[in-house]
Design a protein that fits this description.
The complex is a heterodimer of chains A (189) and B (98). Chain A is mostly helical and 189 residues long. Helix content of chain A is 75%, strand content 4%. Chain A has a two-stranded antiparallel sheet with strand order 1-3. Classes of the chains: A mainly alpha (189), B mainly alpha (98).
Chain lengths: 189, 98
């Protein structure tokens, strides 16, 4: 997986600007179409204006659908932003990475036990040096344990984000729009 | 039913509708472009679903383009038919006057 948050943010802003412009132009178009009522009137114009009302509702639904997609992207960006700006990881390596960390942790623990079993009675001078070394190993062990927990938490966050995005996307249904039959409004005058 | 048409105003209205229709064509193109470009910046397991939605939006936009074009066609043809009718009526009066 890979995510580039800053670029997504910028792109989403551009998308929003287009959406706003689209909404304005839709308002202008339908306003003008509604004006036609006062300059053209016959049996066909009535059907035509009826159809315009239905189309307008369809377009409003479409605008809502686009906004729903925008909301999913906004959620996507907000959640991934908590993790970082550029995220790249092969999730299929998740278990292998944890196993690797565990094997290094075991090695640390084994070495710490070796230090603990050392008999210092015959070498009091080296004792302090060896104790420091053992302490260093314990610190590294704890650091690695933290890294493992952070790594697991990040992966869990990514899995949760993706699960939520999946649910949000599944809720979005793009409604079919019926195309008008122009013949209905183009009869003989 | 009271039938009427104001040719001059309808002509102006058609020009405006054409202008808004062209603007909307460009808006939908822009929306599609940005939706497509959003996909460049991530690759997660939900990317396919986003791609599928983009395709549905793309198909819907094509229908909206045709509907908007339809408005223009209907009004232009209505104007043309009324003009033709006016011409016919005027010729008939000329014939009667001869």
């Amino acid at each position: 997986m890979q995510v580039q948050v800053s670029n997504l943010k910028h792109q989403l802003t551009l998308f929003l600007q287009s959406l706003e412009k689209y909404e304005k132009d839709v308002r202008d178009l339908y306003h003008e179409l509604n004006q036609v009522e006062s300059i053209w009137h016959d049996a066909h114009s009535e059907k035509f204006l009826e159809e315009i009302k239905t189309d307008r509702l369809d377009i409003e639904i479409m605008q809502e659908e686009l906004k729903e997609i925008k909301e999913v992207y906004a959620y996507f960006i907000k959640r991934y932003e908590e993790i970082g700006d550029k995220i790249s990881f092969d999730l299929s390596f998740k278990n292998r990475t944890i196993q690797k960390i565990d094997s290094v942790l075991l090695l640390f623990q084994k070495n710490i036990r070796l230090y603990q079993n050392l008999d210092f009675s015959f070498c009091p001078e080296e004792r302090s040096y060896l104790e420091d070394e053992k302490q260093m190993l314990i610190e590294n062990l704890n650091r690695l344990k933290n890294i493992k927990e952070t790594f697991k938490a990040k992966i869990k966050t990514i899995e949760d984000i993706e699960q939520n995005i999946k649910m949000k996307l599944n809720k979005i249904k793009i409604q079919y729009i019926k195309e008008n039959d122009l013949k209905d409004y183009l009869g003989e005058v | 039913m009271n039938h009427f048409i104001n040719n001059e105003e309808l002509e102006v209205s058609i020009k405006k509708i054409k202008m808004y229709k062209n603007a909307l064509d460009l808006d939908l193109e822009e929306i599609e472009k940005h939706l497509k470009e959003l996909l460049y910046f991530f690759d997660t397991k939900n990317k396919n679903r986003f791609e599928a939605l983009n395709l549905e939006i793309y198909n819907k936009n094509r229908i909206v383009n045709r509907i908007n074009y339809g408005y223009q066609v209907v009004l232009e043809q209505t104007l043309r038919r009324y003009d033709e009718l006016a011409l016919k009526v005027s010729k008939s009066f000329e014939e009667i006057g001869k």
